[in-house]
Amino acid sequence: MKKRIKHFGILQCGKTFGAIYFLLALPFLLIMLPWAIMLEASVGLLAGLALLVLMPILYGAAAFLGGLLTAWLYNIVAARYGGIEFTTSEVVPEAT
Prior knowledge:
By secondary structure, the chain is mostly helical. The chain has helices spanning about 10-25, 25-40, 45-80, and strands at about 1-5, 85. A two-stranded antiparallel ribbon has the order 1-2.
């Protein structure tokens, strides 16, 4: 059975993208921690740690805006050309 995505909720896409990219940025905190500590000599430990904490927040905020823009543009294009088409099938549970 063919289905077509005609519209995305713009705000919901933004929230979803923002949350996913925020979570993707969290592991980088551990990787970047040594560099934040090394920044102590030039900008101070507090500034280095502040940058480390702000990075996932800013990354998530940028992804939120990107999600808004992507969903908005998709909705415009889908209204004109019909949207992404995909095929689904019913899954029959196996008898136990």
